[in-house]
Amino acid sequence: MLKIAYDPIYAHPLPEGHRFPMLKYELIPGQLLHEGTIDAANLFAPQPCARETVLWTHDEVYLDKLQQQTLSAAEQRRIGFPQSPELTLRELTLVQGTIDCCKAALDHGVSLNVAGGTHHAFADRGEGFCLLNDMAVAANYLLHQQLAKKILIIDLDVHQGNGTASIFSKEERVYTFSMHGEHNYPFHKEKSDLDIGLKDGTGETAYLSVLAATLPQLISEVNPDFAFYLSGVDILDTDKFGKLKVSVAGCMERDRIVFTELIKHHIPVTVAMGGGYSPDVRTIVEAHCNTFRLAASLYR
């Protein structure tokens, strides 16, 4: 059964001025339920992640600041959100959601978190609307529990996964792959195991061709027994910040390339949604829902 992590706190932790980017977190499961792609049995609500588990990835001093609400003004500006207990709770909950998705993916081949993809969070700080790095925490959980030996992180958000690259820069058991806008945020890039920087205005055909040529070879070389997929929809041509030219249909084809290749090699995968900033929230929701629809149809 397809298992999807969702908690209402994903959508409601922020002041009114920050609400629009969060609307998708309640609209995605609502749309999937309405159309019959999933039912209530597919959804589960994670609990907040345990402190000990977070500390396998993040520095204790930084975690204390999050939990005790002692981030400096500069640290809050770097993150982009004002600190609040609700925001920290949200982050701990989505991190556990990604961990729980890993357990479900080991049983069912795939599992998806309605939130997650917080790839700008470093071990000792947050950046770019990311406080804790959910995929990094979940990957370290799998390694610590000996549930995986070699992990591939496929980051196809339009922004480089700089925090993830930094966290695993010396961890040979986790291979980081980021395909992103070369001249987009973050403007100082970290070094992933494989970075593919795309020029502004890269079109759909070129985007899909690069991915289709890269991913099979990468899987063959890395030989992972578990994968994470960050399926950001900020690659869309409608995105306010993305600078790429991929349609909603092309975004779905990107998902198909990833899922098909992982299925071919029997590699379980946990998926997180990442970014999406098109002016019309319906475009964002449709593109994200396509990822869930495709997973539901391919994994049976």
TrEMBL record:
What range(s) does the Histone deacetylase domain occupy? 24-289
* Gene3D superfamilies, A to Z: Histone deacetylase domain
A GO BP term, please?
epigenetic regulation of gene expression
Xref: SUPFAM superfamilies? Arginase/deacetylase
Keywords in alphabetical order: Hydrolase
Q: Name one Pfam family in it.
A: Hist_deacetyl
Q: Out of the domains of life, which is the source?
A: Bacteria
Q: Name one GO molecular function term.
A: hydrolase activity
In the record, the note on similarity to other proteins reads: Belongs to the histone deacetylase family.
Task: Specify the protein name.
Answer: Acetoin utilization deacetylase AcuC
